Amino acid sequence: MPTLFSTRRANFSARSLVAFLCVGGASTAAHYPHYLAMLALMRAGLVPGTASGIGFALAALLNYLLNEQLTFHGNEARRVTAPRFALVAATRLLLNHLLLTALMRAGMPAVPAQLLTTLGVIVWNYMIHGAWTFRRD
Prior knowledge:
By secondary structure, this protein is mainly alpha-helical. The chain has helices spanning 14-43, 48-53, 56-71, 78-105, 110-133. The mean pLDDT is 83.
C-alpha cells in the first residue's frame, strides 16, 4: 500500500525540474514588484515579514496555473490539486516568514535574507508539489 508521499506516485523528472525552475522564474518575475513593495513598505515602517507577504497571493495563483499546465502535467482534478496547492501555499508563506525572520535576527540585511529565503522555499515547493500536490494517480 503506497504512503502519502510514495515515490511510486511522486511526479519528479529532469524535465519537471527544469520546467519548475522556469515557472518559478516567471512567478518570481511576477513577484518582483513584491521586492519593490517590500522595500517601500519597510521605508514606511512595516516589518519585512509583512511587506514580503504583499505580493504572495498573485504569485501563488500564477505559480499554480503554470505548474499545473507546464511542470507536472498532473492527472488529478483541480478540485483535488487546488486545495493541496492552497495548503502548500499557506505553509510556503509561513516558511517564507520564518526563514526571513531567522536570517534577519542572525544579522543579515532584509534583501539578501529574502533572496536566500526564496531559494529555500523553491526547494520546499518542488519537493512537496512533486510528491503530493501534483502526484500521479
